[in-house]
Amino acid sequence: MNEKKLREENRDSATPGVRPESIPGYALGANQSASIYSDNVVMGGAAGHGFAAEKANHLYDQLSGKDAALVGADNAKNGADRRVDGKFIQTKYCQSGSDCIAAAFEKGQYKYVNRDGTLMQIEVPSDMYEAAQAAMRDRISRGEVPGVSNPDAAEQLVRKGHFTYQQAKNIAKFGTLESLTYDAVNGLKLAGTAMGMSAALTFAVATWRGAPYAKALDAACFEGFCVGGVSWIGTILSAQLGRTSLESSLRTGTDYLVKQMSPKLTAALANAFRNGNNIYGAAAANHVSKLLRGNVATTIVVTAVLSVDDFCSLFSREISGKQAFKNIAKTVSGVAGGAAGAWAGASLGSAFFPGVGTAVGAVVGGLAVGAGASMAANKGLDTVIDDDAVDLGRVLERAFAKLAQEYLLNEQEALNAMQGIQLLDMEGLLRRMHACADRTEYAVEVCRPFIEDQVHDRLPVFLPTDSEFVAAAGRMVARFEASVEEGEGIEASTVDSTPEPLAQGGDIQATSETSAPRRVRATRPLKDRILAYAAVLNDDADVYCGSALETGKGRDKKSKAQSNFGTTDEAVLVADFTVFGSSTEGILITDSHIYAKSLFADPVVFSTSTISNIYLVEEEKKLVINGAPVTWLGDQVTPKMRLIAHCIKKHLSEAPGLFGGQPGIIGMAKEFEGQLIKLSLLTSIWEMELAGRISKVYMGDLQAGMSFGYEGFFDRIGISGARKNALKEYESIKREILEKFQSTRESLTKVNEFLVREGQEAVELRISLDRLPDENDSATNTDWYDTTSEAFNCLESALGVIHKSLDLATDRLVQIRAKHEAPAETAPALGAHS
Asked: Is residue 775's pLDDT more than 70?
């Protein structure tokens, strides 16, 4: 429980949305959101609904696949607002159809004429189209439209807008359905860009860190969706804020900041993310001021979205106020720093290589400045405020130390217990601890089962018999008498606590058979072992055990799981792998059986008495029991499954032997013999299953993967496919053998301690898998079959090694039992050593 490690872990988890590779995506999203904010500022004026209509109609035409562009930014006198499929358009949204047409005339003449003499179209609200056409016909009849005398030409001059007058007014307002819909659609393109950039950078970083292709791709997709989603929501909310009084309240401050900048810097910043012709002077200053206000609004919104988890955790007491402040401050620094860096980088890049330089500068600037700002904030805040993880880590340390003293743990036992605690999801554990009224008691509940596991694994201590105590007392008296005669005393440090070798039979027999009866280890039911960890397994979301299965949601989960698996056995634990909590996929554990079902797979049932091998493949979210995989989708389930697998393994390693518990050394030997005989039987079954799989590969894919160098195109495709299958099966079988090897070594640990204590050699379990298959599965590789066949031979040889080690350990236990079952001799009398 290293304090520095806890601090580093909390750093990563405190602001999960602002990873360095995500900063450019957030930065680009923030700057584009600021641009949208800036463009929408005009909607706040008296004629805001007219600009809203112009922008909404433009967006509609774009989404309809038309060649649409906004061309009114040049503010040319009597210029067009929009261009659609080559036609120039003036958008007029007034209170009536006649007012819309009247706004297109000046001094009795139509004023919107293109440079080539053609007339622009007048776009009017959809609900005023007929009235506007009638007004235009009247104007034509009066000769007010140059070059047009036929009133029917009104149909070409008046264009029906896609939105009504009221809809346009609502788009310009805060919080209306129309404005939210417009902002949502307008932000989709931005979200896609931010998502793509974040996904690409995440994939690259994961690949550089050595992640497998599939895992890197999954991480890229997940991060892309997160960044894209946050950017999209941020765009909607910041655009909405631009329609409130926030816009006017920020204007004085941003205008002041812009006045402090040089005209060159102002122009560079104004044109960094701008489409169309560059702007300078007052127009550039005004645009930069709006962009600054947009960045402030966007930073507020994105920080709020990314900090939702922190706020929820704060309200549920899972984190403290100071931790929430730190997390939010780090988020602000990452988002704001990234946005500023992207803006500055884009401005610099545009000055040298417009287009490509803009994009590259935005990415590099966002990553460098954003990551630097986030790191600086982390360092500064860490010097003045400790993370909750550090404070709670100290509570956990004190609880562990207190229990270690109470249970008299030795160094190795303490290390083993701490390694067990590391199986847990520490972030979730610390959050739940913070929410507890008594955090110390919760920490004790977390640590206790891991410590009791170590105590339970201890070999029993048999108290000396009366004759042994008498003999020892006689030796001490004799030494004391000798030291008095020599004028010396007996130093405590000179008393050897190592027992002297005892004669064959005699004292050994007395020790083993006259001590108080005691089993080697009281075998704990699987139910008791799992319930000991209830405090860390229960999460009120995916995993329920013990008392949590008797109330509320847990009782419902248990009922559904029992129904789905068709059992009425008492449930010890239910793990729900489904998204909507139906318990149709997951695990149900009783005291004697494990029921499991994965997505798109049939249910499987295992009796705990027949499980020969169990292991977890975390990167694949898979628990393998007797070769059958049980899979899940959510990462949050994996730490719980890690602990569940640990409990099942410990239970299996302590399963009772074939002999009843008897007192003393003979009883211990029989108990260990029984465990090893049972394990040997299960190992034999496991060996036959794996030998069958290896034989199947020999007869199938290995044979099909042979090549002689002259095969045709389709033959080579088949050969390459067979080789891929063989290599995949090799990795699967190898993993099972290594897991079995590790579990067998764990099972032999206490046996070896007992063997050494009784004068026998420990059994060493070693396997060699140095023969590796040929990874080059190309059909042109004619050496592939020989090399890969040797690798499979090596796997097959390893199977026998495990079984032989179990047999050897059993033989040595038999020897110990035979020695201690010999007739007893008389114990030495008092004073025999004097």
From this structure: yes
